[in-house]
Amino acid sequence: MERRASLNRACRIAMLGFTLALMGCSKQQTSPSVLCDNEGSDLVAFASDRGHAGSYDIYLFDADLAGFRLLKNLHSASASDSSPALSRDGQLIAFVSDRGGAGTSGIYIYERISCSLLDTPGLHTGTESEPTFTGDTHRLAFVRDTLGHKRIRLVNGGSLTYVPLPGLEAPAAYDDWSPAPDSLGDHIVFVSDREGSPHLYLYYRVTGKVDSLKDLRVAGARDLDPSLTPDARSLCFASDRVGSMGGLDIFRADLTVSPLQWLAPANLNTVGDERHPRISHSGDYIAFQSLSADSTGWNVRYYSRAAGLVVKPSQLGGTGTDVHPSIRLP
């Protein structure tokens, strides 16, 4: 994989409204253990139970150096952490954890430069899941269980004040989940069972309208796990529709074309399951989890659109279950 031209620039941190002091960038693979490791250009975060089946931790893989980055002070021996979401600069990781106790899961944010959890008042106060940063990382979308039903929420960085989502907030007997926001959170693709089976919908925050994306549907199929580029153009999702290679496969659609059309990226899917695609900001790469015949359970992989090639680093194989990838790739 080509290194981005920005690798040798000074690191820039301006995410979620927090002002961070950066002391410089080393090119070493791993900083000394007494320091925090905030390095790496092309990164893949994921959750894994490798080494302790059933209890998950967050891992950060450096695709350029084919090794893992330190996440000092993040892992907890008494808690399970999952569903990581990387910020655009790779310096923040939002994730879901049960470390708050009381039988609930909440969202936490880890800052790599200080190797510590940020203070996030208003979060991890209920059952929360599926965090995703907007493309500019100034907002965070997630799911909260409200009165027994899942609803999508959006908060501003820094203050963590809630952004109104008219049209998504009304009480109703259905669930909305898996938010995939664009750069500002003005467009959010999500999954809902409001019409019975889980399908994809596109929400326009400015107007409060919800588009059912009916052109993308196939009768009898479930559509899940959306991921959207910051320009709201390219959408990836998983589906068990007719025409897939087997089980759940990954598909891609261009939301600027009418009528909407979908296709399977060449050489990506297998006769096993592929789920949780996460498309890079440029749309050139897709990280996903695979349960293919050559995997050892769920394995995380990433796909180069230009080469039509699935990359399978040996460090992302092995024993255990690796799931819910998030990427910082070109």
Helix content: under 10%
Quickly count the helices.
Answer: 0
Radius of gyration: 19 Å
Low-confidence stretches: 1-31
**CATH H-level superfamily:** TolB, C-terminal domain
SSE string, helices as H and strands as E? EEEEEEEEEEEEEEEEEEEEEEE
CATH architectural type: 6 Propeller
Mean pLDDT figure:
88
CATH class: Mainly Beta
CATH topology: Neuraminidase
Helix-and-strand structural type? mainly beta
- How are the strands ordered across the major sheet? 3-2-1-23
Beta-strand portion reads 35-45%
Q: How many domains make up the 3D coordinates?
A: 1
Q: What quaternary form is this?
A: single chain
Dominant shape: globular
Helix-strand blueprint:
Elements: E1 43-48, E2 57-62, E3 67-68, E4 81-86, E5 92-97, E6 106-111, E7 116-117, E8 128-133, E9 139-146, E10 149-156, E11 176-181, E12 187-192, E13 199-204, E14 209-211, E15 223-228, E16 234-239, E17 249-254, E18 262-263, E19 273-279, E20 285-291, E21 299-304, E22 309-311, E23 322-328
Antiparallel strand pairs: 1-2, 1-23, 2-3, 4-5, 5-6, 6-7, 8-9, 9-10, 11-12, 12-13, 13-14, 15-16, 16-17, 17-18, 19-20, 20-21, 21-22
What would your notes on this structure say?
The protein is mainly β and 330 residues long. The chain has a single domain, classed as TolB, C-terminal domain (Neuraminidase). The chain has no helices and 23 strands. The strands form six sheets. A four-stranded antiparallel β-sheet has the order 3-2-1-23, with no helix packed on it. Strands 4-5-6-7 form a four-stranded antiparallel β-sheet, with no helix packed on it. A four-stranded antiparallel β-sheet has the order 11-12-13-14, with no helix packed on it. The protein is globular. The relative contact order is 0.13. Mean pLDDT is 88; it is low at 1-31.
